[in-house]
Amino acid sequence: MRSAPxxxxxxxxxxxxxxxxxxxxxxxxxxxxxxxDAGVSPALVIHHFGSKDELHAECDEAVLAEIRAAKNETIDxxxxxxxxxxxxxxxxxxxxxxxxxxxxxxxxxxxxxxxxEQMIEDAVGYTxxxxxxxxxxxxxxxxxxxxxxxxxxxxxxxxxxxxxxPKDPSDISGMVRGFLATSYLPMIELYSEGxxxxxRMLDEYLLYVPDPPQDTATEPASE
Length: 223
Known about the structure:
The chain has a single domain (10-208), classed as Tetracycline Repressor, domain 2, CATH 1.10.357.10. The chain is 69% helix and 0% strand. It has 10 helices and no strands. Helix 6 (95-107) packs across helix 9. The chain is elongated. The termini are far apart. It comes from Nocardioides turkmenicus.
């Protein structure tokens, strides 16, 4: 999570401690360990949230809101010509969020699935923002593209972690640095420059597929 306010409320302090603890250990982390991290009693955690499940739900909301804000801010900075080098330098700052997303993927089940589906829905929103800002090319099916981008990014992340597991699973910052060191360049290159030198494959494929739903279709800009 980003730097907390100078004097966060007790509820916020507990929530932020829970995000970090869940990111490090998974959702099996105890209320007692979260309370210790937040400097409060376990009873006070339950007083504020009612149950660990409710705390988990509020952590989900906070992480998703943070991701949405970061994506939209980056789009605004790029669209206005600002440098985003500070985003690369601040990778460690976003490590707890990424660790939390990893744990949600690993946990699976209805809660994890709902979390990922919300990430995809949010991606539809911020890619639309990017299209409106003139930064992102429109898609024939915005919802399908957003879904593919989110699942591709998360799939790459999970495969990298499974193939090259960190020596210390709780070292979220190290995990993030390792992933970005191998992935940032090809990812940005693909987003910025594309892959094929011809659109022939797309033109041929479009002959055999139905038109996308009208509420998600956007006529892409001509090449």
